[in-house]
Amino acid sequence: MITGHSFQHKDSVDVTSPADRRNRPDALIELLRDRVGNRFERMTGLPTLLLPLAFEFSGDSCRTFSATHPACAEFSDTRYCRESWRLHRAELERSPTPHWHQCDYAKWCGVVPVRHGSRCVAAFKLVHDGDMCSDFFERYVDLLDLLVRDVVESEGKPLADRVFTTESSSVVDSSSVHNGSPIRSMHAKVRRAIEYVEGHLSDTDLSVHGIATVLGIHPDYLAHLFAEQTKQRMCRYIAIRRVESAKNLLATTDWQIKRIAFATGHANPKWFSQHFRDYTGLTPSEFRRSKPRDE
Q1: How far is the C-alpha of 53 from the C-alpha of 287, rounded, in Å?
Q2: Is the pLDDT of residue 25 over 70?
Q3: So where are the chain's domains?
Q4: Helix (H) or strand (E) holding 129
Q5: Are 201 and 264 in contact (CB under 8 A)?
Q6: 216 phi, psi to nearest 5 deg
Q7: Which of these ranges, 107-111, 164-168, 218-222, 245-249, has the smallest mean pLDDT?
Q8: What is the distance between the terminal CA atoms of the chain, rounded to a whole angstrom?
Q9: 20 to 30 A Cα–Cα from 22, which one of 3, 9, 49, 269?
Q10: DSSP β-bridge partners for residue 123
Q11: How far apart are CA 81 and CA 72, in angstroms?
């Protein structure tokens, strides 16, 4: 298992300015893909991979996205590449600034974040063969970062504000989904999906696709049924139930934060802390301090 990379950093900034687009997550993703990714490729001939880190959609998009750049396709199933992406992701959580390194497969790999406030909501991944000198690759990273800043400054920030405000206000309390009478009136597949989620919150691979496979139903149909009957997306429901389970463990046990993260299906304690704060406004430690142990 690899333990780290020597990342080089560029300063990154959060940005502001108005835009007039739909208040939907995919509108922001479309904007970034068109105005940054496609534009960068036209200028340089190099493709980028857009990673929607903070977005959850219904249907296919609700599943775990691939962090494999086309230039790395032949190495995508290697343990090294999976661990490398985990380190990149952790680096974005720790310091959401552009960074890059040369991997064991002689590839330059760079990641440029898209920020909303202090939060990294998306990132562009850039890869090139290692025969390019470091200075040239750094210039490509600089250019990609400039394009991100320009688009977010001119259009993206207000759209992101509306997207995340809409996302937060549209979440339905998960307790209403499995509280006596409502669940009995639901489609049998939705009831079984809820029961499966409740019994597998500690599974880090828990997903719409995986649950659909267990239930013998198409993932898109399950996502549609779930959203129609519960008024919230299934991936959002899973995320909320994990946070609620973590809140209970924080208030009623002396377990370390790391243990609670793993027990609630979070593979990385740092991601768990950020995820928990996104939903509650507090870090796990702050939440624990705010709650008497007998609650």
Answers
A1: 24
A2: no
A3: 8-170, 174-290
A4: strand 119-129
A5: yes
A6: 70, 40
A7: 164-168
A8: 41
A9: 49
A10: 51, 113
A11: 9
Angle of the 208-215 helix axis to the 188-199 helix axis, nearest 10: 120
Share of the chain above pLDDT 70, in %: 75
Query: Is this structure's pTM higher than 0.85?
Result: no
* Bridge pairing between strands 99-102 and 107-116: antiparallel
Contacts for 239 with CB less than 8 Å, ≥ 6 apart: 56, 275, 279
Which of 112, 108, 103 is CA-nearest to residue 141?
112
Q: What is the CATH number assigned to the segment(s) 174-290?
A: 1.10.10.60
Stretch 137-141: mean pLDDT, rounded? 92
The 8-class DSSP code of residue 34 comes to I
CA pair distance 198, 164, nearest whole angstrom = 26
String of b and e for 39-66 (b: at least 16 CB within 10 Å)? bbeeeeeeebbbbbbbbbbbbebbbeee
Is domain 8-170 annotated with CATH 3.30.450?
A: yes
Please check the confidence at residue 66 and state whether its pLDDT lies above 90: no
Q: Which two tokens stand for residue 24?
A: 């939907």
How far is the C-alpha of 283 from the C-alpha of 295, rounded, in Å? 18
Dist CA 266 CA 279 (whole Å): 14
